[in-house]
Amino acid sequence: MTMPLTAEYDADIPVIEAIQQGDRDAFADFVWAHDRWVRGMVLGVLGDRDAVDDVAQQVWAAVWIRIGELRDTRRWRPWLYRLAHNAAIDAHRTRVRRRVMIASAPVPPPAKNGTPAPPQQLSDAEQRKAVMMAIQALPILYREPFVLRHLLDWSYRQIGEAMDLPVDTVETRLVRARRMLREMLDGKV
Amino acid sequence: MTGHDERIESLMNRSLDGDLSEPEQLELDRTLIRSPDVRREYEQMRRIDNLAVEALRAMVPEDQMTTVPNPEAGARRSQGGARKLWWLLPAAAAAGLVVLALLSARGPANRPDGGVAVSNDNAAPALRVVEDANRPLQPVRPGYRPRLTDRDLDRNWIGIKGDDGRIYWIKTDRVRTLERPRDAGKVKLVSDNL
Question: What is the ipTM of this complex?
Fold first, then answer.
């Protein structure tokens, strides 16, 4: 028989406690249950999936090593969010430095006979690509809640709980993210 | 943007997120009926939202998971630079396939629990003769049991008598999770009786 859950009950807390005692099976279960949102989180910061796998691995390794630092197990979501966010920000900075180095290299001039293509109706695949590029162009501040909302279907409350933000702030960021996307995609979608 | 526009923009956003109360939804619907511009904007927002969901879910598919790092190896890796372990999953899958191929090539084999699993040469490999179809549910992995969350993998054997008079059995696995409040410690599992 499955007992009804109380409002305060969080089924992940005993799993966290088991991990703190060194239970590897519990750790594997925890990864299984929450890997997707960690990956979503990382994607929210990085904007593309190039380094998502590597960063997610780093996050889970850090969870295992640093789980003892989590004193209040009820606050595991913001704690995990902070770990994932920081790892993703580090990876993002490294990539930005690399991009700056590439960008500073001399760029060959465009071909003389190149004429700009006329605007045309994009196919569905092209529209998805355009939307993805626009999401990548969003500031991290707005991209993170947008990705959590659209990838994981999280409510404002869930996003606020993970990011340690008031619900109003989450809503404001989503409004701005959508406004920016509309401006960037005007005429394309 | 005027205060009214901001209000409508907020309503449109929260409508897309399924976060509107009934009166708010009514207010938005009225505005959408009255204003073609707002309607066009709302449709564009909805289209972008749908495309964003498709694009993001294609990038992080549900069935794709991070390889669980070996904790100790993870500690070394985090100190000494990242090393990709992407090959582990396909390698494990390939090893599993090899083991399955070897097992199916062996023909009649002893079951781990002592019963005899005899493959019928003419039957699909998934069907095997069973001796006792009345076995109780077996917990396959009883090891991990957190204090308040119990996840059991139950294996059930179903025996079916074939036209040739032999009994065939089908294996079904089912995963279930029991969760209970902190102070309710008396939930019984099937595996508790074994």
Answer: 0.75
